[in-house]
Amino acid sequence: MRRRGIDIAPSKIKAITEMPPPKTLKQLRSFQGRLAYIRRFIANLSGRCKPFSKLMYFDGASSIQPAVRPKIPQVRAGIGLIFISPEGGILRYSLSLLKSCTNNEAEYEALIAGLELAVNMEIQSLHIYDDSQLIINQVEGSFKTYKQGLLQYHQIVIELFEQIPDVKMEKVSRSVNGKTYSLAKLEKELADPD
């Protein structure tokens, strides 16, 4: 600190601007933690991020592909997220999942990652779109969640929903959600199961 305020080192700015985007869910969550830490030092950072997004599209993709040696099936999974700001700005995320999961679990992982981003940016109003009727109906309570593996995801989503005052979910067709699906599928195909 100096008399005229905080000096910003050019090397720090360069490091931030050249920082590679997160490629995995673990890296994304690490980035979110850093953003939360920085928020304490930058006045009104959350106020500046608030208009970031009102719309979120999400999708997950998973498939079993045989490994070359030995012929044991390898599950690959990826998620895609698209945030659209009120001004029309678009942020796209394509992340691979490090653990094997079903397609429904990948859908939940995508929803959770998107909600965590929204919570960290203190977004107060969010309209969420996906093409999975099952996930939307389970979250809204129209369908009961019976599968033990999905119950944990469902509970996390409900807890995250409680942190955003105005959240709406809507089912859209695969064609409307196609770009998000493409991001998830791309990351699934590029995922390294090892």
UniProtKB/TrEMBL annotation:
Give the Pfam families listed for this entry: RVT_3
Occurrences of domain RNase H type-1 (ranges): 75-185
At the top level of its lineage, which domain of life is listed? Eukaryota
MF terms (GO), sorted A to Z: nucleic acid binding; RNA-DNA hybrid ribonuclease activity
Gene3D superfamilies, alphabetized:
Ribonuclease H-like superfamily/Ribonuclease H (3.30.420.10)
- InterPro entries reported for this sequence: DNA/RNA_pol_sf (IPR043502), RNaseH-like_sf (IPR012337), RNaseH_domain (IPR002156), RNaseH_sf (IPR036397)
Please report the name of this protein according to its UniProt entry.
Answer: Uncharacterized protein Mb2253c-like
Q: What is the species listed in this Swiss-Prot or TrEMBL entry?
A: Dioscorea cayennensis subsp. rotundata
**Which gene name does the record give?**
LOC120260047
